[in-house]
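Hi W.,

Here's what went into the run:
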Amino acid sequence: MFRKYRRFLKGLSTNWVGTAGVVLTTSAFVLFIFMEALRLLGIVTNAYVGLISYMVLPGLFLLGLALIPVGWWIYRKGTGRSTAELLSERFDPEILQPKATGSRLVATIAVLTLVNVLFLGAGGARMLHFMDEPVFCGTACHRVMHPEWITYQDSPHARVKCVGCHVGEGAEALVDAKLNGLWQIVSATFDLYERPIPTPVHQLRPARETCEKCHWPDKFHGSRVKTFPRFGFDRESTPSYTALSLKIGSGTGEQRGEIHWHVAEANEVRYASRNDERETMLWVEVRKGDDFWRFTNRKIEQEETGAVRTMDCVDCHNRATHVYEDPERAIDERIHRGELDLSIPYLKREALAALTSGYADTAAATAGIRNALTGVYARRFRAETAALQESIEDAVGVLQALYRRNVHPLMNVSWNPYPDHRGHRGGSGCFRCHNPDLVDAYGEPIPYDCTLCHSFLSYDSSAPFAFLEAPDSTSADFSMHAYLRDEFLRSASR
Amino acid sequence: MSNKRRSILAISRLPLLVFSLAAPAGGTVRSARALCFVLLACLSAGAGSASGQSAAGKCMTCHKEKSPGLYNQWFMSKHAMHNVTCIDCHGAERGDADAFLHEGALIATLVTPKDCGACHAKETKEVDESYHATAGLILESQDAYMAHAVGGYPAAIAGCESCHGAKIKIDPDSPNKLARESWPNSGIGRLNPDGSKGSCSACHTRHSFSKAQARRPEACGKCHLGPDHPQKEIYEESKHGNAFFTHIDDMNLDADRWVVGIDYFEAPTCATCHMSASPTQPLTHDVGKRISWTLRPPISTMKENWRDKRKSMQAVCTACHGSAFVDGHYYQMDGVVQLYNKKFAEPAGKIMKTIQERGLLENPSSFGNKVEWTYWELWHHEGRRARHGASMMGPDYTWWHGIYDVAQHFYFKLLPEARAFGDPEVDARIDDLLANDPFHQWMRRPTEEIKADIRSGKMQRFYEDLFQPAE
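Here's what came out:
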């Protein structure tokens, strides 16, 4: 049997093209079986191997199959003889013997074709499955996707597959994604992509299909306390705290005006933005049952139009997964978590300076961060940091990791590359709609009062919950403290 | 302010009242809430201005984020230290033309001397009586005519009115009810909708309202500089300015009490001489109280009660200088001012008057003819520079930027341009001046003869009478 198969293969290996086809097909097939065996036996666990098993090998297999007839065609043209003559020359007469069911050669080809189809079918299914794995998305185009891959792995959605949000469900979504993927192959191959790659807000599946599978508005209740520590630039890196009690409910019943009110089932918020960039609003409409409000931007000529969009999760949570950290906040957070030793003098100031000095690439940053930090403490604070060498060494490591996580020079991803619309840092986010310029017919703006969405438990205060204490009448902040304490008590007891 | 506070109180207490009335209708939770609100209501009533405070607390909460610079300036200010909050200055009364409802409080962006006067009554009164407060009334003056006709409205707004003060216009469609052509404006003679004149923030820059800042020459230098009144530059040229910048750290600029010679002594600033306390007299916000000459008009005159005013200024000088030094300064200063008056300003004025009376000007509109510009700059630019230079001990401004320019433009611009009309009456007046006026006869005499007269002191005697101020 094996000898027969070998003879058959020899028959197909008409010239170097045919031979290459036979070799490619056979070795790809054998290797695939081998790799799958290793995977199933648990010997190979690296998901990256899937790129070879499910993409490279089936590809080579197909290429080989295509080369065989090409080789035959060249052979026939070269010799100038008929197919029948050539067949009888290259194959045993017995397998060319005509039978009722066709010759043995036809049968062999039919069986092998069946095997090919089965193999390609199974391989294709495995390939599609593999392409659904985050490791495929994150590493196949490794340079392009590197920043997204790194931030994804460190995100709250690290256990949700990329395709869960970026592709969605159903045949249509799959076809869309694959067609889009074809273009991505072209743009990655010919270096046509933008750096950094723009946020695919317009291609995302509707949040109702994706996000709301796990997070649905009916289940947003009450408040969530978040504390933002901030360390000073003084010698002690003195901390100050802003703690917010975020009113995250969906505003059902009497609890109107809470944050997730925007996506509560009964409410619909629509808007149009300048150039469809979702930054500067042209107008905003709110529909709640039969009630309707419309706010227009008094600073924009009303002839200007933009695509109309119904607000959903990603209008605010536009960076729910690929979270890039602000360098100062990132350092504050690492100090707060205890990863950086607060007994190092001027820790915050020096760490931030070391982290954000404009490095050309990651290698330069790795060396530069070490130089900056160890240098400044060796030169200027040698005596007092003699006992802190280990802490400084740890800090170097933490800062280097922070840099690698957030800055990706190959993709032009520097600090804060994308706007984050959750909250209102830098006057964006909530303030895109909640600002004095978006007014109704009577000139009344959309409310933009700070305590609309959150109460304050502290505000640049020396303690995280300073406002729960009685206000100090000798402080300049007395009025604010009293007001905010009062506001918190009022809204919390509602 | 007390009225304002009351109206704010009324607005912000209302919800508490409603809550405390409505709440007991519910169950236990509601009752607890009701108790909470009744307590809060009582607390706010007990604390007097607690509700005003609550409104201010709300302002601070947002503005700390939205305008951190403004907030931090206030936070570090004396106002914050004395619990003077946003609403104390910005609270408005129903019916105020510029009042608007903002986050539940009736406020006004514009803070006028009337508002500041609620606490700073003496200062407000002094400012209101001062020449500064009249700076906005220039709309009828030659300067305003020139800005609007020769320049144009935008320049008048951003230029002239920024110093002199705009007439604040109300625009009902503006979010803060203030029309953009007159807001922002911190001109010292601003005409406010409440009838008050001026703007304290012209000198006491908001929201720090720092004493140190108002005491420094830069505060005045916002307006008192440039070709027509370079007081800032003259001060920098003078020994006074020199000493100030050298000893800036010893000037005790932040001190509450700031008496020249006692609390600081290295140098005076503009404020020292014109406003601040001296060992013998109190601080005044009436900036003209120590000024004896008016150096602004084409021909300088002595001001009303000039002897008293001069005495006040000399009382400041003597904190650091001997009385002979002070007398000498005034002698020299009076000499230059009257030199300008008698030798150049009066004849130039007469020549211009003749030209106008004879109907020689080609264009009917003021500033439509070259000779008018020449005359204007003679008194309004170099003429003032010379006078200001002499009065503040700035030698270069007295001579090279001053009388030198006046003389050159008088002899070689004004006189030739006047002669160019070819009018016998104008020519006769000029000829008479050059032939018979001892100040001007030099032109037709040989140089050596004049040099001899200078050496002998004969030339100086022509000017003998100028050193005594005329009544």
